[in-house]
Structures are given as structure tokens and as C-alpha cells.
Specification:
Blueprint lengths: L1 E12 L3 H5 L9 E11 L2 E11 L5 H16 L9 E4 L10 H7 L3 E3 L5 E3 L3 H20 L2 E3 L4 E3 H7 L1 H4 L6 E5 L3 H12 L7 H12 E8 L4 H7 L9 E11 L14 E11 L1 H21 L5 E4 L10 H10 L3 E8 L3 E10 L3 H5 L11 E8 H12 L8 H16 L1
Helix pairs in contact: 4-10, 4-13, 4-14, 7-8
Bound molecules: adenosine monophosphate and zinc ion (ZN).
Length: 414
């Protein structure tokens, strides 16, 4: 391991330390771990350097230049907007410290790749139960229709929505070999002739560089883009259209992956609203109330506050974050997990008319439609639930343990 302390040309105020931490791993794949170094500037502390650990020796001049670019382009221009807490559950915080380790020991969480986990019961039953609670609430309140979409999404749809240029760090493109006999043969030869000492991944990467192309599809980073595409170019026949769907989502979270909190592959239940400005705003607000009641009923500690997305490498990063926070376009439900931390388990978003415009969706009055979405991270939500209530269904609220046990019984009798 090699350690370098990279000084920052411009010091970062502590209020932006979290924004910096969220992006350091995306500066270079060489970084194995890092730590922010603070110093006192008068009475206040600032971040003055980043201590990075790399596996192989790395080019420190380049690392320094990239970290300083990150600071000047994406971090320092961010203006300060205080988080605004709008709701707090009535339940006190209690968490079981070793939940993730126990899930591993008991085979309830099965590591299956970087940022990827398989799951066993009772966790899978819990995820299914929570998903059904969220789906049923959306159906009850808005008549939301259940849909099912593919895991792949045309890359053009992500470009149209702005995702491609706002979150390049998360993209997981689907590649395929050139559809020509020579490419298949060349690929097979390179992979089978590889030097036995060579790492398979490295050999495959080399062969892919020579013989593959982008398929035109990307692994979906969220479910809602399918919904905007489905309505593209259309006029709605009601003031509010609501669709709900569960899907597997993919985000390359680099080395930020952590237990069940941050995965490269996870499951999202989304409830999407498209309609007039007022109806979409009302829908997001009233669905937030439904979710507050659900969180209370589940006996969970948590709170909701304003939030922003981790925009990256975009000339407008700071402006976008500022607008999101100032206009309260994004709220997140934060649920406590061990170590005095909380994780964002649900986001409640409005996008104004930007996606309606991008996808040419109109209201029955021929106005550009507004959109909003509420996104539940099912593994994250369920993980916070077991961190707070334990892994044994006997300790869960009655309605949950009854539902999980009866679905287990149904599975067993099949
Ligand atoms: P977002 O679209 O970023 O607001 O994400 C919606 C929800 O998906 C979040 O509130 C989380 O619960 C969940 N989520 C987002 N990213 C991840 C991830 N990398 N791993 C697990 N859950 C995630
Ligand atoms: Zn969404």
C-alpha cells in the first residue's frame, strides 16, 4: 500500500466536507481508501488535504491536479443552504450494532461481488412485505397502476432525461461484442489464449477493448425514466397520471459500497406522478403523509429533510444542488442505522417541468406536464428496519411478522 497526503490549493470549509467525501473515490480508481485532513484557520476548522492510500504507486502530480479540480469545480462553488427538517417520527432510536455481521454469519446476506449481495429469509420476506405496503398505499391514494419495466434502458432515454451528463460516475453501460464472426472469433481466441498468470478480468477487458461496442442500452439507474419515456410525445387524459413499478437498479458506487446501505445493484419501488403543476405537487406532499404514517406504524425512528443529488462533473453541479435544496425539490426519509448514522431510505422528488419538456409530455390543457417521483430503496429500508428491530421476526411489529411468516408458509407449501 502507498500513502500520499495531497494538499488542496483551496481549503474546503467543513460544511462541504461531506460533499467532498462523496466524490473522492470517483477521482481515480487507484484510490483504495482516503481520509480528509483538517487544520485550524483562525477559529474554524477547514479541510486542507486528502490522505489517500493506493495499492500501486500512483502519479501524485496527476492525483493532486484531479483532486484540486474536483474541489474547484464541484465543491467550492456550492452555496450554503441549511437542511430543513420537515418531519420526525415519534419512535426513539435503538439500533443493533452488529446487524450486518450477523446477516453474513447466518447466510441471510450473501456476498456475490463488489457492491452486490444475495439475500435469504426472513430478509427477503421483509423486503416483499415492505414493497407491498408501499405499492398498496400508492394504489389506494392515487389509483397508481402497477407496471413492470426491463432492467435495460435505451441510453438515449438517459441522455434525454439529463442523467447521462448529471451522474456519469454511476453509469453501468451494457456492452456486447461486435456482431461479426471475426469479432466473436477474436474474442474467443484472446480469452482462451490468455497467459495462465493473467487475471481473467484483465484478459476479458483487453479482449473487450478490441472487440466490443456499446449495445445502445444501459442498466437502469432508476425506474422512473421508463415511465417518462412511455409517455413521451403524449397528452395525458387526466390531470394526474400515477404509475408504480418495482425494478432492479444499477449504480456504479465505486468503493462507496457498504453493507446493504450502498450497493451497485439494488431494488427500487417507485411511484411516479405526471400531470399539472398543482396536482403533482399535491401528490408528492400527500404521499409523504402516507409514508410518515407507514413509518410510524412500522415502529421506526427516522426523520425527513431536504436533500440534493450527487451531481458530478457538470459545469452546473453547484447550481443544480443549490436549486434542489432552495426549492425543496428533494426530500429524503433518513432512518437510523448503527454507529450513530442514518441512511436515506426514501426520496420524494419533484422535477418541475424539466422532464415534461425533455419528453414532450402535455397535460389535458396542452401545458407542459410536471413530474415527480417517490423512490423507496427496498434493501436499504429493510436493512434499517432490521437494524432497529432485530433479525428475529418475533421482535417485529405484529402485522409485519404475521405477513412474513404467512408468506414463508405459503412458499414452503408450494
Ligand atoms: P435516489 O434516486 O438517489 O433518490 O434514490 C432513491 C432511493 O434508492 C434512495 O433513497 C435509497 O433508498 C435507494 N438507493 C439509492 N442508491 C442506492 C444504492 N447505491 N444502494 C442501495 N440503495 C440505494
Ligand atoms: Zn425517480
Amino acid at each position: 500500500m502507498h500513502q500520499y497526503t495531497v494538499p488542496l490549493s483551496q481549503k474546503v470549509p467543513l460544511r462541504l466536507a461531506g460533499e467532498l467525501s462523496k466524490r473522492v473515490f470517483f477521482v481515480s480508481e487507484d484510490i483504495e481508501s482516503f481520509e480528509l485532513v483538517e487544520e485550524k484557520e483562525g477559529e474554524t476548522a477547514v479541510v486542507c488535504a486528502v490522505r489517500v492510500t493506493t495499492r500501486a504507486p500512483s502519479d501524485t502530480v496527476q492525483m493532486r491536479s484531479m483532486l484540486n479540480q474536483l474541489v474547484s469545480d464541484d465543491i467550492l462553488p456550492q452555496r450554503s443552504v441549511m437542511e430543513h427538517r420537515i418531519w420526525q417520527s415519534s419512535h426513539p432510536v435503538t439500533t443493533h450494532d452488529d446487524t450486518f455481521d450477523r446477516m453474513l454469519d447466518q447466510g441471510i446476506a450473501i456476498p456475490s461481488g463488489e457492491g452486490q449481495l444475495g439475500f435469504g429469509d426472513p430478509f427477503t420476506g421483509l423486503v416483499a412485505h415492505l414493497d407491498e405496503v408501499f405499492r398498496a398505499a400508492a394504489q389506494r391514494s392515487f389509483g397508481a397502476l402497477e407496471h413492470r419495466y426491463p432492467s435495460l434502458i435505451p441510453t438515449g432515454v438517459l441522455a434525454r432525461s439529463g442523467y447521462l451528463t448529471s451522474f456519469p460516475q454511476f453509469l453501468m453501460f451494457a456492452g456486447r461484442l461486435h456482431g461479426e464472426l471475426d469479432s466473436y472469433k477474436g474474442f474467443v481466441k484472446q480469452v482462451s489464449d490468455r497467459d495462465s498468470a493473467e487475471d481473467t478480468d484483465a484478459a476479458v477487458s483487453r479482449a473487450l477493448a478490441d472487440h466490443s461496442t456499446h449495445s445502445g442500452y444501459t442498466l437502469s439507474p432508476a425506474v422512473c425514466y421508463h415511465v417518462y419515456e412511455q409517455h413521451a410525445g403524449k397528452s395525458l387524459d387526466a390531470d394526474l397520471v400515477s404509475v408504480t413499478a418495482r425494478g432492479t437498479c444499477f449504480r456504479h458506487e465505486s468503493r462507496y459500497h457498504r453493507s446493504l446501505e450502498r450497493l451497485w445493484e439494488f431494488t427500487m419501488r417507485e411511484v411516479v406522478f405526471i400531470g399539472s403543476e398543482n396536482r403533482v405537487a399535491e401528490a408528492r406532499n400527500s404521499f409523504m403523509q402516507d409514508v410518515f404514517a407507514i413509518v410510524e406504524e412500522l415502529g421506526l425512528a427516522g426523520h425527513v429533510e431536504t436533500a440534493s443529488d450527487p451531481f458530478f462533473c457538470d459545469a452546473k453541479t453547484a447550481e443544480k444542488i443549490w436549486t434542489q435544496r432552495l426549492m425543496q425539490l428533494k426530500y429524503e426519509l433518513l432512518l437510523p442505522v448503527p454507529g450513530g448514522r442514518s441512511v436515506a431510505a426514501v426520496s420524494f422528488n419533484t422535477h418541475g417541468s424539466s422532464l415534461g419538456e425533455a419528453f414532450s409530455i402535455r397535460t389535458p390543457d396542452r401545458e407542459i406536464a410536471h413530474t415527480g417521483c417517490v423512490a423507496f430503496g427496498l434493501e436499504r429500508f429493510a436493512y434499517a428496519f432490521v437494524c432497529q428491530h432485530g433479525l428475529d421476526p418475533a421482535g417485529w411489529p405484529d402485522a409485519v411478522s404475521r405477513s412474513v411468516q404467512s408468506s414463508g408458509a405459503t412458499e414452503a407449501s408450494r
